[in-house]
Amino acid sequence: MNYSTGSNSFVKSKTAKLVNMAIKGMAVTALSMPFTFNAFAEEEKVDKEIELITVTGIRGSLAKATEVKRSLDVVADVISAEDIGKFPDQNLAESLQRISGVQISRNRGEGDDVSIRGLSPSFSRIQFNGRTLPSATGGRSFDFTILPSDFVSALEVYKTPSADMEEGALSGTVNVKTPRPLDLGKSSLITSIKGIYEENSGKTTPDLSVLYTNVNDDNSFGITLGAHYDKRILESHFYEAFGLEPANESGKGLDFDLNGTIDDSRYQFDHATNYALAKEERERTTFLATAQWRPSDKIDIWLEGMYSEFDIVGAKALNSFRWTNVVAGGSVYASQISGDLIESLGVIGVDNRNNARTADSNDTLTSVALGTNYQLNEDWLITAEIAYAKSENVSSALSHEVIGRANAQYDFSNDYAGIPSLTYAAGYDPLDGNSFRSLGFNGALDQPIEDENIDIRIDVDHFIEWNIGNDFSFVSLEFGAKYSSRSKYNGFRNIGVSSQTLAGMLGETYDPNIEGGSFNAASYMSVYSPSSFFDGYDGSATYPTEWLSANVDTLLSHVSLDELIAAGTITEGGASVIDVQEDVFSGYAKLSFSGDEDKLNGNFGIRVVSTDQESSGNIPDFSTVKFDQGGAQTFVDTSESSMTRSYTEVLPSFNLSYDVSDDVVVRFGAARVMSRPDLAVLSPATTIDVNVKTINSSNPNVDPYLADQIDLSFEWYFEEAGMLSVSPFVKFIDSFVVSSTQPEQVTYTDLGGNNSVTDTFTRFLPDNGKGSDMYGYEVNWQQPLDFVIEGLGFSANFTVVHADEIQTAENGPLLTLDGLSETSYNMVAYYENETFGARLAYNYRDKFVNNGTNYFGDGSFTNDYKQLDFSASYNVTENVSVILEALNITNEVQVQTNSLNVNRGLEDVGSRFTLGVRAAF
């Protein structure tokens, strides 16, 4: 099979491979946005004998996407920028949520994790130009907040695999693509200047980027250099609850039902509740560099590098009530009980733990790759690449720990799902700093996390023509191998300064008899009174909008951090440390075919994966457990443990598409897929928490998740850029990692080794449990409305996912799968002409489970969430345009509840607006 002629043989032969992607498969579903879909971005400059239509704008994007989709067989969705630097959303995860079956979670209102078809983000594989991106977030999933969209040319979401695709995605694979200079094929300079306005903070901050590409005259060498900087000043308003604690009156020494007798009656009440203000400054700096060289028409060599740094400096000021901790002699002064649930509880002497813990972190991501394509002859193409990537995070969460004894009452009797009302008893002044005592200084200090990955791969494509029968032939044979080595290290480093030591440094009077040893904290408290506190909440609850909280900056103005470090105790290592090494060897073979006058296309293949795993961690000595009541911290001596294991999996796949008519295409896919457990789960480490009476163990013997999946897709192309498709799917998941639980007696003391207490703890141990059958369907509809108004149109998609309930705890109840939203949908309306384009996008995600059991067995759920966004652009000249983006226009809030629909959290991040200018030359 010869696609090569003349001096441009490499480009043509390589293009032939891309044209043959109908056999390799990548179905493209367009979205109604002002940008271009280009599934073949890496071959934008090709010989004129190969017709690849160049399209711009919304209508051209949809037309191109539907034409490409008709000829391909593997189910995938692609979002491509109309031009580099013109991605439809500033955040990549927020673009991905427009795709059917894709849902996201948010951090401070910004998309960070991606879920595909109802499974949690840990089941999604995130790649950068086909390579694994590490993440120092603790799991395998990648946090999109570290990567800006300015340099991204396309996002690819693969929902069904073929044998050449890397394993590790039980739900799907997301590939983030950046451009190569010779694929752009011309020199250019693209720059943008934007301002970002945050509604809650009232601050406007910059967003700046520049991307320069230089290509020589014969298109044999080029470089791309990019730089991006943005800053956000955020203000988030929180309500947080930690679950319904079951307790006996006699165990707490409180007369909950006010019947005059403290007996063994058992009730459920809020363990702790926080009203909080979080302020953060977020700065992101990213550099991109790519060099590409084609010394001949047979060789393509590229060197790619990317560095991104993401800094967060902030603090979360709490108005916190630990209803489980009441001062000796304290009592209940009000209560309202329904069954065994205390809907309203007023307590004299409740723990008012008002600190402002810092949230400072530095996150860096480095990625570099060297690769080549070598056209051995007309029918053989060899690709090889070596890549290295590392993500590092250093974080501190420091607190001046204080305690007040409030006379306060919570009440959610009128609205379980809303914020509970919080009132103070008459005669108590919550703004009197003398009500608070300092318990010392503590927290994580420069705590490290590292995630490092090395990939080496080689792929061989052999274009063949093996005819079988009159109208059926095998057209390509692909095979290859890959070696990956990934290491994950979660460190532990903590500082503790006792209240006695701190009092001496500050010249304060220390009293050993108050709160176990403390001093007056009035001089180190600040008043917090956020404007428009919870203005996104529309319930009837009343709550304080002004409170006192200990301010770490105020403390550090009296004594430096270096002095605190020198005087305090630094604890490193211990039970929280995780160290895992994973080496993976994989190989594959794939055969592609065509028949029935090219109406039938498909491939089948097999991938074999061998995994070697080595993990180490620390095991606690339970005879040494000590608990710091003031800081709610647990300390224990540990010893190191390590373990190795190996396993091999065989993953077959089959994909098929058939053109039933000129307008109708049917697809079928079947595959066995796998995902590995989070690296933290694979450690032999064990941690203990006296505060909530739990023991959490990891398990290096947990097996990978395996599933068999079947996909169908029925597609009708009824006009240019118009499409209606229905895509049912099913996954048969062999097993999930569940948490076995068992009671265990533990004896602990205070920090001085005194006041011994023996109590019942719950040990959680992950293990492989029963699986689940998951099934659902996606509906996509793209509709131009030129018959109404020229340039008007819309797209809509709707996804439904069902899954059998599973046991998240051994012998526990059947519960809905964590992270599963049964329904999600998107609706996008657009209008464009030669100078103006606008998009109004609405996204909805159904309620889902965060944790079916949680500490006290009442579970944690995120309620349904909807968001309306708007974007527009106006072309001032051929090279300059003005852009506007408005996110969360209606100021929606995220709400969490428990299994009784009692509120467990509310986050109000406000709306966000971006205005800027983009220039391209």
Structure report:
The chain is 7% helix and 57% strand. The protein has nine helices and 51 strands. A hairpin with a 7-residue loop joins strand 39 and strand 40 (792-803). 48% of the residues are buried.
Task: Give the SSE layout.
Blueprint: H1 9-19, H2 21-24, H3 57-70, E1 76-80, H4 92-96, E2 102-107, E3 110-116, E4 124-128, E5 131-132, E6 154-158, E7 172-177, H5 181-184, E8 188-198, E9 204-215, E10 221-241, E11 244-248, H6 249-252, E12 266-270, E13 273-296, E14 299-338, E15 341-352, E16 355-358, E17 360-377, E18 380-411, E19 421-424, E20 436-467, E21 472-490, E22 493-498, H7 499-506, E23 519-520, E24 525-528, E25 547-551, H8 552-556, H9 561-567, E26 569-572, E27 578-595, E28 600-620, E29 626-628, E30 633-635, E31 638-659, E32 664-675, E33 686-689, E34 694-697, E35 705-719, E36 722-733, E37 737-748, E38 757-768, E39 772-784, E40 792-803, E41 806-807, E42 814-815, E43 823-832, E44 836-845, E45 848-851, E46 860-862, E47 865-875, E48 880-887, E49 894-897, E50 903-908, E51 912-920
